[in-house]
Amino acid sequence: MKRATVLFSWFLFLAAFPVGEAHATAAGEAVPALPDFRIADSPVPVAPAEKPEPKTKWVFQAATGTAYQFHSRLIIEQDGEENLDFTAHYKTYPFTSGAPYYSLRIGAWEGNRAWEFETHHHLVTLVDDPTGKIDGFYVTHGYNLNTLNRAWLLGGFIWRIGAGVVITHPENVVRGKKFSGDGFYEGFYLSGVCGQLSLEKRLSLWGGSFLYVEGKFTAAWAKIPVADGEATVPNYALHGLAGLGYEF
């Protein structure tokens, strides 16, 4: 009972003197305000604005040029015959091989990075035959390097790495036998795998158009058909290209 009386008296005291305000006694003396222990209204936290997602920009490029092909091992196997195995020398004839040398590429850029698809119409012509048994060996309607690329814009240059598959259109005559296969789409064959490293520099023109130059190294391994057999034709090359592009 005594405890209840004390609590009731304290309640009356607080009711008579609201917190946070000064009061005066009957004698006119100021009574300091009681400290205000109420929790201040805290502002509702506002989440920071999210950065907008980078807009995808589509870029199309077309180029031509030429290539230096490093010497590489060529192996030709035919039924009932001894294998032909030697270091082959190849050349690129970019505009005199029936089909021109070119590269086509489309990329989806987000900020400074892109995913790309590229088809590179590489041309391979054998220019020596130490065996004396090859009357012609051409992959000039395409030793096509088809790659999925990852590209980055760094320091004003575009750096690129890619990997994919080789599709060839072989034409050859070995030991007097001319190859005449069907393949798909008038003589094409899925023949092997390839990769590339590339460095590109662009020069803006007007609108979304630009000029560009590009240097690249490619490495590929392919098996192509010959009459009564097949040939293993790896290829390593340095390419120089120049072309036009457009950003949508």
What does this structure look like?
The chain folds into two domains: 2-31, no CATH class; 59-247, Porin. Helix content is 6%, strand content 58%. Mean pLDDT is 86; it is low at 10-15 and 19-27. The chain starts with a helix and ends with a strand. The strands form two sheets. It has an eight-stranded antiparallel beta barrel. It has one helix and 16 strands. It is mainly beta and 248 residues long.
Q: What is the topology?
A:
Blueprint: H1 2-16, E1 23-24, E2 30-31, E3 56-69, E4 72-78, E5 84-88, E6 90-91, E7 102-110, E8 113-126, E9 134-154, E10 157-168, E11 171-174, E12 177-178, E13 189-204, E14 209-226, E15 229-232, E16 235-247
Antiparallel strand pairs: 1-2, 3-7, 3-16, 4-5, 4-15, 6-8, 7-8, 8-9, 9-10, 9-11, 10-13, 11-12, 13-14, 14-15, 14-16
Brief descriptors of the model:
248 residues, mainly beta, Porin, 2 domains, 8-stranded antiparallel beta barrel, two-stranded antiparallel ribbon, 1 helix, 16 strands, 58% strand, elongated
Number of helices: 1
Q: From N to C, what is the helix and strand string?
A: HEEEEEEEEEEEEEEEE
Distance between the termini: 86 Å
The portion of residues forming beta strands comes to: over 45%
Binned, the helix content reads: under 10%
What integer is the average pLDDT? 86
Strand order of the largest sheet: 3-7-8-9-10-13-14-16
Overall shape: it is elongated
Short summary of the structure?
The protein has one helix at residues 2-16, and strands at 23-24, 30-31, 56-69, 72-78, 84-88, 90-91, 102-110, 113-126, 134-154, 157-168, 171-174, 177-178, 189-204, 209-226, 229-232, 235-247. It is mostly beta strands.
